[in-house]
Amino acid sequence: MRLFSRKDKIPKGNHSVAASLSTGSVNSATTQLSMPSIKQSKVDLPRPPDPELDPVGYLRSLGAVRERSRIILEKVTSDDLNHFDVDLSKLPDVVTFVAGLIKV
Q: According to its UniProt record, what is one Pfam family this protein matches (predicted)?
């Protein structure tokens, strides 16, 4: 289950070369999948800890994790990650794995 893979080190000036050499780009026709529609229900979340008083607690809070996950997913869908390619076909496997870890 490899959702992320490291990109080859190619200078930023050669972006067109990097795109042609990439084998796992999210823009390639072989790996591009339509993102499944995810319906998130609105749940009242407890207030996260104050980042000034408890930075670790804040970063581990559900709201902070969701916020950072959303930012990363936006970068993935716009192919804006500098160091990794993402194989979105593995996303359902990752969701199943993580959901198994978080059992309520």
A: DUF1688
- Domain assignment present for residue 42? The answer is no
Q: At 8, list the tokens.
A: 């080859």
Residues β-bridged to residue 84 = 6
Which structural domain, as residue segments, surrounds residue 61? Answer: 4-33+47-101
4 CB burial (10 A radius; 0-12, 13-18, 19+): middle
Which residue type occupies 104?
V
Report pLDDT for 75: 92
How many domains is the chain partitioned into structurally?
Answer: 1
At 44, the amino acid letter reads D
Q: What local confidence, expressed as pLDDT, does residue 92 receive?
A: 93
